[in-house]
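Predict the assembly for these four chains.
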Amino acid sequence: MKAYVKTSRGPGGEVRTVPDPKPGPGEVLVRVRASSVCGTDVHIWSWNEWAQSRVKRVPMIFGHELSGEVIELGAGVTSLSVGDHVSAETHIADGTCYQCRTGKMHICQNVEVLGVDRNGVFAEFAVLPEQNAWKNDPSLDPSLASIQEPLGNAVHALLPEDNIEDVAGKNVLVTGCGPIGLLAIVVARILGARRVFATEVAPVRTRLAQKMGADHVFNPLEEGPELARTIVRETDGLGVDVALEMSGHPASLRLAFDALTPGGRVSLLGLLDREASLNFDDAIIFKAARVHGIFGRRMFETWFQVKGLLERPELRTKMAEIITHRLAIGELPRAMELLTTTQAAKISLEPRW
Amino acid sequence: MKAYVKTSRGPGGEVRTVPDPKPGPGEVLVRVRASSVCGTDVHIWSWNEWAQSRVKRVPMIFGHELSGEVIELGAGVTSLSVGDHVSAETHIADGTCYQCRTGKMHICQNVEVLGVDRNGVFAEFAVLPEQNAWKNDPSLDPSLASIQEPLGNAVHALLPEDNIEDVAGKNVLVTGCGPIGLLAIVVARILGARRVFATEVAPVRTRLAQKMGADHVFNPLEEGPELARTIVRETDGLGVDVALEMSGHPASLRLAFDALTPGGRVSLLGLLDREASLNFDDAIIFKAARVHGIFGRRMFETWFQVKGLLERPELRTKMAEIITHRLAIGELPRAMELLTTTQAAKISLEPRW
Amino acid sequence: MKAYVKTSRGPGGEVRTVPDPKPGPGEVLVRVRASSVCGTDVHIWSWNEWAQSRVKRVPMIFGHELSGEVIELGAGVTSLSVGDHVSAETHIADGTCYQCRTGKMHICQNVEVLGVDRNGVFAEFAVLPEQNAWKNDPSLDPSLASIQEPLGNAVHALLPEDNIEDVAGKNVLVTGCGPIGLLAIVVARILGARRVFATEVAPVRTRLAQKMGADHVFNPLEEGPELARTIVRETDGLGVDVALEMSGHPASLRLAFDALTPGGRVSLLGLLDREASLNFDDAIIFKAARVHGIFGRRMFETWFQVKGLLERPELRTKMAEIITHRLAIGELPRAMELLTTTQAAKISLEPRW
Amino acid sequence: MKAYVKTSRGPGGEVRTVPDPKPGPGEVLVRVRASSVCGTDVHIWSWNEWAQSRVKRVPMIFGHELSGEVIELGAGVTSLSVGDHVSAETHIADGTCYQCRTGKMHICQNVEVLGVDRNGVFAEFAVLPEQNAWKNDPSLDPSLASIQEPLGNAVHALLPEDNIEDVAGKNVLVTGCGPIGLLAIVVARILGARRVFATEVAPVRTRLAQKMGADHVFNPLEEGPELARTIVRETDGLGVDVALEMSGHPASLRLAFDALTPGGRVSLLGLLDREASLNFDDAIIFKAARVHGIFGRRMFETWFQVKGLLERPELRTKMAEIITHRLAIGELPRAMELLTTTQAAKISLEPRW
């Protein structure tokens, strides 16, 4: 089959013809109908510091976000059938570690990630463990089905303890409007948020954030250190109840806490890539703030929430708007260029070569 | 001033002229702009068994749901101003009992209720404790502002522990489509419910339940004992994650549990008025079900949730549809007739005499 | 090997020599060091109505509570070694149903139970799935290790949402002092309960309840309908914050709710075997009570809690006192007689024939 | 009456004779039976930077921790009687701000603190608002009764969401063994913690930490950067489930996160007094850690938990051991010296002059 492959421990990759994969026991073979590009893929493409230390296995097929059709069942698979329309939870948990056995499979200590630790999905076919193949409603558009993982990240960041009391009728701030930030804005609106504020620098994402339903999208470079005060003023002097930090910028990290109402909570998802400095007294202790590190999605509670939310036409419409580009897999270099220069939000890949 | 008064310990009531009330320390005087009729008012009007044992004080002004304008501040009031548009949390808690001191003010053991334990609001003016006067957005329509208490009941029944994991993307059943049931349907939809089922007998309420967004509204008399199985089938064989019992019928109580998925939860709000029989083994123990008794609204977490939800035009539009009749206070006997015969959903009263 | 076998669909059972079991892939073979008798075993022995409809497979080896030594690993087992000291979570979940995939494996819809759905453990050897073999500290006494399942039931009933706010410093009522009730008393004490009340009829269990640390053990037959009032009086007029119903008696069910403080919670574990009548208005709605059906133990959060609690010498000492009889497996008929007549609390079985 | 007074905006203070206070409406007058010294008092005594900016009112009577006897009731007080034995919740909340109205009174935005914003309790008599006067069991030793606030801090830090799942049977780390840290060790033990680790530099506190029940008390200066690895190794390679940072040292902040198991949580209580640097990616995001800022105690849920825990003789015995010195109020300078040089843990003050 054809596949986009990381061929050497350096920047870039190339289309290669590789042997067709076969599903082992407990696995299914999927014909890829749509895939999409995640920030992780960009890091592996550009071969940054994180990728150099994290990726062990080269050559390896790129990519993890996908949707496709089950075309073959490995031995022992019972919950899926040939013809099913599936997406992937791409974190493959071991099921036996302390975290897995205490309801925290999403932070399995021996996790393997598609396209990072084993062959990914930018290919004609892909193999998935049965448990990780999530069955979609047959009518769900393949390109939307492929971006359920970032949607799950957004839902999990918004509801880290599944608790809506901070969202319904409350004020929310999203710093950084990449695809996950944009999806968080839509979901906050659906879940009844009162005011949704966002920050973003790139014009294309700023416009999308407005379309997603943010009340105000601030450019933090223009607003400067006054921004926290502005947000507090816009919330009757209270500050936001929930801040989702999705930019990875130290200034946004501070903003998230400065704009927070006492007793509020902050979800951290954007990687900072280095140490950052914070006044923990003011940011967390005196405010009795709660902070959640967000990694992956709860398996599979978050997926069920995503399934339900996807029944709302409003969400599907807005997800489609977040897909700013639809390219052929063969155009992966162009996708990488668009994302690196933040000219795109989400890029969907079609299985054309 | 004019007021509708329960004048004797028997059915009915009458318009009387009574002295204008004065706000004491920590109280405010409100000019009533809209009020509305609750089931409790119907009980006191018809003087049923519950009313006979519960109501101590006659003569007493009827009613508790209202919105109005603050026109005078008692000594020491600081959080409100003359001219504020307010509604009432009509449960007046003592603030010192065990429940009040452990975050459960809504089940204060010494609660006093407007229109039940002290003079109510079907009048030209009403006095409210400062804490119980909830400040509305000035633009909120007075008749909608008056029905925030039942909206709060609906929100509290849906989210008794503020936990959305059972609602967003999940299946919900509402048995009984009085005003609170109808509001619960709308709110479940806003909070991202996947499927919403309802039961109702009265045609006017059945039509409203459909308008509110219920996927199926069943007539339990027609469906009979098959209904639980039907609902389970409609949910891919799982059953509903949340059932809200708002009818007070023993058969609906059973249905709520029979249609529930294992691990699901039931909120009980509809009063049964007598003992009911249940197979606790099957309904609760083997299913590991959770059950919440719903009384009042959390003070004031639920009110903040309500405030945020009210910013959604969709909710305000549907609330207006639930108000099937707009009458003058002087027409209270007709309102009672319409409600007793379930020809109405919610009746709004305008301060005309 | 020797095993105690249900040989026909009627009362009783007998010792038989059966083929030694072999561990399949993902299973381990265990040499039984101690087992113990649960109420479920008594039902299957006496072949009551529940057993007649529930048990499909006869002949079948009895029993599920055990501890033992791993003596052989099936293919693919990695988390256990030969020589490990293990106990069993005897509910074997399928891992793929809706409940399993949303953190509720303990109410798996396709659960299989040892000694009920497949061969049990009253034998020389037993086969366990890897996931269900819980590794004990090597120094834990085998007979205590065997009764971790009922200890887990007690912990789960006390902390159904892992939430201690109702227990630490609060008042607790346990109705019914079988082994699980007795263990709940000890654990409530360890977790900082303020007052612990219990009800029991059988003298041996009453004395044990006192030893476990209950402040008052009432005989409900002697106390009569005044008992709820007595308990409320003993708690400064408040009532208990948590009631654990473990007797299966309708009168105790009522007592649990009557003695409850508003906003309190009730865990139901004792099976009633038939419908029961309750005033849901007073018991649940007006009280804003919370009710949890208790089935099994959370897998495996509860087990980790049990492991930690077992490090307290106080708990191990009291568990040993609950084991009123230590018999050889061959004396199973006598064990059944002692339990049926409530002359015993927990009976430990040693692998002598 | 006699009182220890901050007389000028500089270090120190002095005994003065001041007018006897009178209780206003809703207040009670208390004769002080015991008081105790908190770190906040030390800051105000030494007049550090925080005190200079925070304290507005001088002269002002020092101190906030106390217990005493109610000797006079202000107008309208109903829940207390003359002769009651009370302690103080010294955070006086306004009851009307956003935080107060959403169950977070302990972070009231207009809080006033005894001995910081208004006259304190190092005096013969003190005035308390009715709500803030906590009624003790009459038999509770006055010096123990006086240190319920730090005990409440410890309980709140250990159970910020009242959730015991991270404590019972789990591993706990306490960095910094001042009085609150020491109390946290005892309470963690009572609540069933599996292993409790602590860090401390001062010998007197190290010995006390061992007495309180810590399994290991490490000197971080001696252990150096290996310490996190040591703790992980001692917990079967997992790391601790809960870390309580009570030292205010940046190195301990890092240790708390480095020693944490993925999915664990950290409570931050020790003030750092300046910015600190952290690798948020590794410490929080990849670990899916939860962080809680701890300020005050939940009002009054934490107090009820404290009341219940105080019924355990084990806790009272250990609290008495934490009181390393019992001095007369007149010896306050010496108390300050002992605390500044960490020769003491908790110092109890007797009302001798």
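Chain A has two domains: 2-146+322-350, 153-293. The CA atoms of residues 198 and 217 of chain A lie 5 Å apart.
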